Amino acid sequence: MYxxxxxxxxxxxxxxxxxxxxxxxxxxxxESLESANxxxxxxxxxxxxxxxFFLEGGDVGVLLLHGLTATTAEVRPLAKRLHNAGFTVSSxxxxxxxxxxxxxxxxxxxxWTAACEKAYLxxxxxxxxxxxxxxSAGGLLALHLAxxxxxxxxxxxxxPAMRLASSFLYTFFxxxxxxxxxxxxxxxxxxxxxxxxxxxxxNPLKAGVQLLKLQRETQLRLCRIYQPILxxxxxxxKTVDLKSGDMIxxxxxxxxxxxxxxxxxRHVVILDKEFQEVAEITLKFxxxxxx
Length: 291
What we know:
The chain is an alpha/beta fold.
């Protein structure tokens, strides 16, 4: 059931934290560790368009899902490329995103999956064939959706966050800290070679715990997935475990599967310097399946 003992230990820890969370409000509030200003930090690149969008095109639709702490600005360049190729493209802003880190901490993973389900059903009214895809945690949500809807035509995964790259001790620390510490500062790199990313400057810890639980649930659903699957990962990714793609391919039942590596890209592979190649691979994968 689990990939290794480390992962099992993490999930056992999550169950213990659930009990602590129920008492955390009564036990302690370490507000000194996280000032009000930290929680009210504006988004990185707030000038970008990060709201939900629906780009109407042809009868084939693509649902794109952004990652944890990001907004739809993360998937918009790829969405525009797909729309220009004639596809209808939709992307919902997930609950807790595009507002404040505190708001994201108050959301549950079932709210994210419900938002994806709603967006999928709306897209289904317009399109007869639908592909679902996502960046990082958005890839997990795409897998979750595909496990519920076998009629989905194909799955597009960009740096899927099946497991994080952080060490067990680091993960152990922030799982334990999540009832008391609101967030931890994120290292947001300024890379002029990449397109701009929009999202929170911090990692809300309770939301991070929800991500770990989503990882576990998604792993258990892989055996229910039969759709064609495309996975694009980045060699320089320091956010997710580079074995995430293999974990997915070992678990799904898909007969059609493709895996590609971007040698010069980092975690947000759909915004990095090899975007053109990522877009071309994605378009070719979709076109092969609809013709």
